[in-house]
Amino acid sequence: MSAWLKPKRVDDAAHVDPDEFRRCMREVPGAVAIITCGEPGERTGLTATAVCSLTDAPPTLLVCVNGTASAHPVICRTARFAVNILAEADLAVAGLFAGRTGLKGEDRFDQLTCTQAPDGSPIIEDALASFDCALEAEHRYGTHSVFIGRVLSAATNPRRNPLLYLDGRFGTFAETAANASSR
Predict the structure, then answer these.
(1) Which site from 31, 32, 41, 116 is most exposed, i.e. has the minimal number of CB atoms within 10 Å?
(2) What is the pLDDT of residues 39-71, one digit of tens each?
(3) Per-residue confidence of the chain (183 residues) as pLDDT tens digits?
(4) How far is CA 81 from the centre of its chain?
(5) Contacts of 127 (CB under 8 A, 6+ apart)
(6) Could you tell me the domains of the chain?
(7) Taking CA 174 as the corner, what is the angle to CA 169 and CA 177, rounded to the nearest 5 degrees?
(8) What is the pTM of this model?
(9) How far apart are CA 111 and CA 96, in angstroms?
(10) Cβ neighbours of residue 31 under 8 Å, at least 6 residues apart?
């Protein structure tokens, strides 16, 4: 039987330089997600890679959102958000919600096809996978909030290549020959 270890307090003088931390994290690939929230007329969203499943009983996701993001106060106020996982074909959508086009808020949604989840958030119809979530908890840490969302509904468009983010660039997944031959 394993026991929980009591965390040790880290001496404030013993830390990793933030620039070095960012350099190291650029080597960690992540799925690209669009976090969306708000009702029509006030919809907003952001491109994120800090998204993961927390548990499947109950189905729950964890997303990290910067406190300065336009979606942050909307998620806090409405207690709802959606996680839309992008496919390779959605590269333009990733750039749109990363602020690369200059469009903001509702104007971004004019560029794509969305449905509004019942009492929920915008769902990007062509996303690889989408999850409509109710906010269960918020934990603020540093510049970000960790939002824990209970998944109320989910949908997928399988057999599409996922969009990934690594070292400041978007890319795709390439199967190894061994994996491809084992299908």
Answers:
(1) 41
(2) 999 999 999 999 999 999 999 999 999 999 999
(3) 445 556 656 666 567 888 888 888 888 889 999 999 999 999 999 999 999 999 999 999 999 999 999 999 999 999 999 999 999 999 999 999 998 888 898 999 998 999 999 888 999 998 999 999 999 999 999 999 999 999 999 999 887 889 999 888 888 887 766 666 665
(4) 10
(5) 34, 84, 85, 86, 87, 90, 157
(6) 30-174 (2.30.110.10)
(7) 155
(8) 0.86
(9) 9
(10) 49, 51, 85, 86, 162, 163, 164, 165
Half-sphere exposure (Cβ direction) of 25: Cα atoms closer than 13 Å: 9
- Dist CA 149 CA 126 (whole Å): 22
Question: Cβ of 163: how many Cβ atoms within 10 Å?
Answer: 23
For residue 129 the two structure tokens come to: 């996978």
Amino acid in position 27: E
**Count H helices, E strands: the chain?**
5, 12
- Residue 9, both tokens: 């307090």
